[in-house]
Specification:
178 residues, 5-stranded mixed beta sheet, 3-stranded mixed beta sheet, 4 helices, 29% helix, globular, transmembrane helix
Length: 178
């Protein structure tokens, strides 16, 4: 009977961890087709797409593209308005980029390939605070997170880790039943 209580507690704890981690959403930028980051055609309008997204801290933007002809750049509002790819905050060029949103505020993305931003391979999007907990306050005399000077980290979703934890727990539970 004691083993059953332990295995029930382990499963409940793991399910809680998984559900907390899954609360973040991964958005395929522009479209669900792959690749999804290229100069817009009649079917893709990144500015319109971004208007329909409720992005929150902890969510991710997924860019899939040909790294030989595209990249992803995080820029400030001035660089965004001018399609300036020289003063980017961060750049990715691996063809398979996941950008985790770490702070609330406006984010600006462009493709730095020649003339791609001018062809509207760009969008701005506002990130709202996470639902679970408020973001930490900025220290005094620092730039607030999410402002034009913030950088965006390219990290993988914690969902994968939570799934691995769940699998490990299920293995433990199954061994307790033997």
């Amino acid at each position: 009977m004691r083993r059953r209580g332990l295995s029930t507690a382990l499963v409940a704890l793991n399910l809680l961890c998984v559900f907390l981690g899954v609360s973040a959403t991964v958005y395929n930028v522009g479209t669900s087709s792959l690749p999804n980051w290229m100069p817009p055609t009649g079917s893709v309008n990144y500015a319109e797409w971004a208007k329909n997204i409720t992005l929150r801290v902890g969510d991710s933007l997924y860019f899939k593209y040909n790294p030989n002809s595209h990249n992803v750049m995080s820029v400030n509002s001035t660089s965004f308005a001018n399609c300036d790819n020289e003063n980017h905050l961060q750049e990715w060029d691996d063809g398979d980029t996941t950008v985790v949103i770490e702070a609330p505020g406006m984010y600006y993305f462009i493709c730095g390939a020649p003339m791609h931003c001018q062809k509207n391979e760009s969008f701005s999007i506002n990130a709202l605070p996470a639902l679970e907990s408020p973001p930490p306050a900025a220290p005094p005399n620092s730039t607030a997170p999410g402002t034009d000077s913030s950088s965006v980290a390219a990290l993988r979703q914690p969902v994968v880790l939570n799934i691995l934890i769940l699998c490990f727990t299920m293995l433990i539970v199954s061994s307790l039943r033997v």
